[in-house]
Amino acid sequence: MDHKLFDSELKVMDVLWREGDSTAKHISDVLKAEVGWNMNTTYTLIKRCMKKGAIARSEPNFMCHALIPKEEVQEAETDELINKIYDGSVDKLFAALLGRKKLSEDQIEQLKAIVGELE
Q1: Which residues contact 8 (CB under 8 A, 6 or more apart)?
Q2: pLDDT > 80? residue 100
Q3: Of 87, 16, 94, whose CA–CA distance to 49 is shortest?
């Protein structure tokens, strides 16, 4: 994937990631219920995702298939956040996240386990 996906395009991708291969009509129905978009809006976004290489389309029924996994997009978005807001410093991001709220004992143990796996 060579282009960044915008928030609106990520909503389309999210339907595919949650539900698997779906018709454009089904994606449109889901997004109408979730965010109130009309069919034309959703179809335009599907086409933009296809142009960016994020979705493949097949017949019959304009069946859509996600070409990129959610994890790949999450990783790219996280890298961008770290670079844009935290000067490329993972520890600054981590400190900011930890400082935002009181963590439960379970959450602290989970974080220790994650850090332990990295060492």
Answers
A1: 45
A2: no
A3: 16
List all residues 6 or more positions away from 17 whose beta carbon is below 8 Å from its beta carbon. Answer: 66, 69, 70
Q: For residues 103 and 119, what is the distance between their CA atoms, to the nearest angstrom?
A: 22
C-alpha distances out from residue 63 to 16, 17, 18, 55, 117, Å: 11, 14, 15, 10, 40
> What pLDDT shows up at residue 3?
66
- What does the DSSP 8-state code read for residue 21? S
For residue 53, the SS3 value is coil
The sheet carrying 63-66 orders its strands as 22-23, 63-66, 55-58
**For residues 74 and 82, what is the distance between their CA atoms, to the nearest angstrom?**
12
What share of the chain has pLDDT > 90, as a percent? Answer: 59
* Rg, the chain, Cα only: 18
| pLDDT per position as a tens digit, 52-99 | 999 999 998 899 999 999 999 999 888 988 999 899 888 888 888 777
